[in-house]
Amino acid sequence: MTVWIIEPRDPLIARDGRPFGPVPGARAESLAFPFPSTTTGAVRTRNGLDASGCFQPGEVPRVKQINVRGPLLVELDAGTGDVTRWLVPAPADALLLELKSADTAKAEIKQLVPLQLPPGAGTNLPEAMALVGMPHRDPRKPSTKAPQYWDWDSFQQWLLNPQERDEVSLSDLGHDGLVREARMHVSIRPNTQTADEERGALFQTRGLEFIHMPEKQALSKARRLGLAVATDAPSLKPGIGPLGGERRLVFWRRSNETLPSLSGALEERIAALGHCRLILLTPAHFKAGWKPAWLLEGREGVIPSLQAVALKRCQTVSGWDFAKGERKPTRRLAPAGTVYFLKLDGDSAAVKRWIDTIWMHCVSDEEQDRRDGFGLAVLGVWDGTFHRMEV
After folding, report:
1. Measured between alpha carbons, how far is residue 346 from residues 273, 295, 303, 316 in Å?
2. What are the pLDDT digits (tens) for 100-141?
3. What does the alpha-carbon distance between residue 360 and residue 223 come to, in Å, rounded to a whole number?
């Protein structure tokens, strides 16, 4: 697959589904990050344009077969515009606590792990699933400065060796990614191209600004951000085009980079342990809500079984079905950062083959959702231990 960079020229609006019309005081609010359906739809639309720049409805069946993985947030080189740093959503099994010294620029990392219930205790979790949390009580509060996105190097270290750390610099770990920028607009009369002062049709949009400004640094140190998607789309052309609400303009260009690869050390450790953590990099759709089905099917001589899960509040997604000319049904998604603790029944060679089918592939239940980029996943180490809960 080829990696393509999408760099917005203006603040991008990925609509959150709230009503927005030509009425005074209306606000168009953007999601914190685009869903895979937004960028996948843009890839397929761009691939299906004819010589005059129009999309033909007859192209729908063909372009729906195009596979897209992502989007992922990336930092871009100021000169070449290519990827210099991959950023991924913070994993749900990493808890950052405030330091006793009250230094908000640093935090302590605690790992959330599957827990062994005390004798006589029980839960209402289905299928004897284990609780996930800290084995030992800690009265400190979670850090309010915890980054929403982790740098790939820090994230890869967490995949391979999720050790608790007494002190870590939050700026080294990652940052909060995109910030929203508010803009005021006024309704324009089509016949005179002047403001419609009689109706007073002022409205506001809040889009995503694709630039990161490190704290206490000069404007010249601002970092360019973009979206990266991997796709097998043929004849995708670089250039400029619209994306998202209000058809804001973005630049498309081919990257010389590839999606982050699986390290040999990580593969060997997972195969030796027979257990792993699966972490979602994009939201996933499962028929049973948070619980996957396709992922747990036996393949490559391995039968995975779900032992525990660490996840945050679900997300909801809808959209417009271009082929049917109607709204898509609203669906709940397991959010990016969700961590599944899996037991892998199979020999070492089979586990390695299974790993190759999962790493940087999509694991949603439906094939079309996997083609659309929902449920992009990577794997991390877990030794299969259920830690004793402190009482």
Report:
1. 11, 15, 7, 35
2. 777 788 899 999 999 998 888 888 888 778 999 998 888 888
3. 26
179-192 pLDDT, tens digit per residue, is 877 776 677 777 77
The model's confidence at residue 43, banded by pLDDT at 50, 70 and 90, is very high
* C-alpha closest to that of 35 among 233, 360, 285, 361: 285
Sorted by sequence, the CB contacts under 8 Å of residue 92 that are 6+ apart come out as: 112, 310, 311, 312, 337, 338, 339
**159 neighbors 266 (Cβ within 8 angstroms):** yes
Question: Closest by alpha carbon to 75, among 131, 17, 16, 153?
Answer: 153
Tell me, what DSSP letter sits at residue 39? H
The domains found in the chain, sorted by start residue, are 2-87+176-254 (no CATH), 88-167 (no CATH), 264-388 (2.60.40.4350)
**Coil/strand/helix, residue 267:** helix
Helices and strands counted in the chain (H then E): 7, 27
pTM for this predicted structure? 0.91
